[in-house]
Structure formats: structure tokens, C-alpha cells
Design a protein that fits this description.
Helices cover 48% and strands 15% of the residues. It is α/β, with parallel strands linked by helices. It has one domain: Rossmann fold (3-Layer(aba) Sandwich). It has a 5-stranded parallel sheet. A two-stranded antiparallel sheet has the order 5-6. Strand 5 and strand 6 form a beta hairpin. Helix 1 crosses helix 9. The mean pLDDT is 95. It binds BIS(adenosine)-5'-pentaphosphate. The site of BIS(adenosine)-5'-pentaphosphate has 35 residues, from helix 1, helix 2, helix 3, strand 6 and helix 9.
Length: 211
């Protein structure tokens, strides 16, 4: 089974991807995490995309499609993939349908105003990429990742002005994908404004319906 998680930046895709992984053992393929790892490692790809990530603009389709194509060939993806942050354009969605079968698309619905506040309170682990929220999903020890002990940081693209640009990019370039998938009856919408546990409950019900 392969799933796509769609939704605005900060809608909770990464949080719910971790919940689905824990339940099913599926692999999380997050293009955002792969790109941030490339930036951190200082690879040629990383140097090419750093400015785009910092400004909240999309990386060219060809680069991310190549990244996903290569990753899909690895054994990690054999037991099913949760796509987090990919596809982000209709072109990427069409290409993904050529590369593999997508069974369900979960759309996390959260209004823009709630997103801007959420992002300012998000903290991310640079080592295992887990995300927390200072109020709603705090760590046990302040500033330290519960899962791996990494020292949490604030992503450069979580600054309010960049978040607003990312939301514009989402509405213009990514939202049209929802209709692309709706046309083939693959969309389930989850109310992402609920408490995280309730969002997880709805998410897992949608996933279990496909299993
Ligand atoms: P990416 O890393 O994919 O970022 P994103 O889609 O903008 O999503 P986020 O990781 O910011 O948010 P999320 O939905 O995972 O939310 P989270 O669970 O953390 O992409 C970054 C950049 O990479 C892009 O801007 C682009 O430049 C590039 N890129 C990546 N993929 C690309 C592609 N395919 N094509 C082109 N370019 C690409 O939750 C957010 C916060 O809310 C956390 O603090 C969390 O704890 C909290 N939270 C979670 N659930 C709840 C809840 N129910 N209630 C309250 N708070 C909650």
C-alpha cells in the first residue's frame, strides 16, 4: 500500500506520517527531509536548493522527481510508502502515478491563520526529524528530542513571513493536486484542526479502510 499525505505547510503531515509508520511499518518518504539532509551534508544538490528552501519556494520538479525515483528503488520502500510533501505540483502527481500505485490520498485540512501560529511554536530534531510543538506536543525535557536526544532547532522557513509565502505557494501550486486525485476517487479529508490524538484516530481509520 502507498499513501500520499497532502496539506498546507504545518498541517500535520509529518506528525501523522510518524503515527502511520508506527502502526504499519511503512517507510516515510519526505522530500523536505531528504532536501534538508542534502543541504546539511553540503552536497551539490544541497547547495543548489538551499536558497529555495530558506525562501519557501518549490524546488524544480525534475530534481525532486529524480530524488523520489532513486529512493523508490531502495529496499526500504518494499513494505509500502507514506509520501510526505510529495507530490507538490500536478506534474509531480502525474509522474508519481507512472512510478508507483497510490492507493489513498489523505488531505489534512487546516486554515491558514492556525498554520502561522503553529509554525512559530514548532521545534524540529535535526537528527531524526521528529517535530514538536511548544504548547500542543511538548518534549519531556525542554529543547531535547524525546526519541533520540537530539538538540531541537527552529527551521529557517518557519519564520512568519516565509510561512505566509509557503502558504501562497501551496494554494497556487499544490492545492490543484487535490482535484487531480479526487477525479480518481482516492481522496479522504481529515480535519487537521482537532487535537493531535483525534487527528491520529481519524488518520488511522482512513488507513485501516485501505488495508
Ligand atoms: P517540507 O519539509 O515538506 O515542509 P511542508 O510541507 O511545508 O510541511 P512541514 O514539514 O512544514 O509541515 P507538516 O505538515 O509536516 O507539519 P508538522 O507535522 O511538522 O518542505 C520544505 C521545503 O522543501 C519546501 O518549502 C520546498 O522548498 C522543498 N520541497 C519539499 N518537497 C518538495 C517537492 N515535492 N517539490 C518541490 N519542493 C519541495 O506539524 C507542524 C506543527 O504543528 C508541529 O509543531 C506539530 O507539533 C504541530 N501539530 C501537529 N498536529 C497538530 C494538531 N493537530 N494541533 C496542533 N498542532 C499540531
Amino acid at each position: 500500500m502507498n499513501l500520499v499525505l497532502l496539506g498546507a505547510p504545518g498541517a500535520g503531515k509529518g506528525t501523522q506520517a510518524a503515527v502511520i509508520k508506527q502502526k504499519t511499518g511503512m517507510y516515510i518518504l519526505s522530500t523536505g527531509n531528504l532536501l534538508r539532509e542534502a543541504v546539511k551534508a553540503g552536497t551539490e544538490l544541497g547547495n543548489r536548493v538551499k536558497g529555495l528552501l530558506d525562501s519557501g519556494s518549490l524546488v524544480p520538479d525534475e530534481l525532486v522527481i529524480q530524488l523520489v525515483d532513486e529512493k523508490l528503488k531502495s529496499s526500504e520502500c518494499a513494505n509500502g510508502v507514506i509520501f510526505d510533501g510529495f507530490p507538490r505540483t500536478v506534474k509531480q502527481a502525474e509522474k508519481l502515478d507512472e512510478l508507483t500505485k497510490i492507493d489513498k490520498v489523505l488531505v489534512f485540512d487546516v486554515p491558514d491563520d492556525a498554520i502561522v501560529e503553529r509554525m512559530s511554536l514548532r521545534r524540529t530534531c535535526p537528527d531524526c526529524q521528529s517535530t514538536y510543538h511548544l504548547k500542543v506536543l511538548p518534549t519531556k525535557i525542554e529543547g531535547i528530542c524525546d526519541k533520540c536526544g537530539g538538540k531541537l532547532y527552529t527551521r529557517s522557513d518557519d519564520e512568519p513571513a516565509v510561512v505566509r509565502h509557503r502558504l501562497d505557494v501551496y494554494h497556487e501550486q499544490t492545492e490543484p493536486i487535490i482535484n487531480y486525485y479526487r477525479a480518481s476517487g482516492r481522496v479522504v479529508t481529515v480535519d487537521g484542526t482537532q487535537a493531535p490524538d483525534k487527528v491520529s484516530e481519524d488518520t488511522l481509520s482512513a488507513v485501516e479502510a485501505v488495508l
